[in-house]
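Revision sheet: structure tokens.
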Amino acid sequence: MKNVLMILLSLMMLCGAVAEDVQPEMPFQIIQEDGKTFIEVTGNPSTGYIWTIFPIVSDIVNVTDPAPVDGESAGEDLVGAPVTYRVEVEAAAAGETILVLRYLRPWEMDIQQEVPILVNVDENGEMFFMYLEGMPMAMTVVEIMEEEHMILAESETLGQLICTFPEDMPLPTAGENVRIWSNGVMALSFPGRINVLGWETVAPPQARMMEAPVEDAE
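Predicted:
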């Protein structure tokens, strides 16, 4: 009963957010220039924070490390002034992946900002970007259902959920700690059901073990 109430409460909160029709401020921009595609974000290198990026599924797109736009470099102009960083994104294969941008200090575990972006690459190599607002759910895999390509996972806040994965997305293993991104829609069933857009392995308590990490920008 507790799990059911938690699911109902989550759905009510989701409906309330939709009803307000508040458009979130986009923390990035997509730039097309000279036949190339870039993601732009803003940072302040004088604080010691840098941007890092990695793709959840590494063979869908190729990405570069975040780097200052030409003419902008750390400490070149006014100390404390914001700097625009660019990540070049190139389609490699048809499919979907999530690019996760994190704004952090390399010597600290705390992440000041996280920007997950869903990237869809069609058969013609065209890329479509969507901001995945909100944080992913931290869960522990309880059971694997390979034939249905689903897992039963447990969340501290929502209890047990059935998570359906795309057919071409690998499944985590039983007992693994993961973070799962979904489309924010939960089917009213018991257990609740969600569709997975992407996931990553997380080793407790806070170590972040990515499937395809990209080295930190200098």
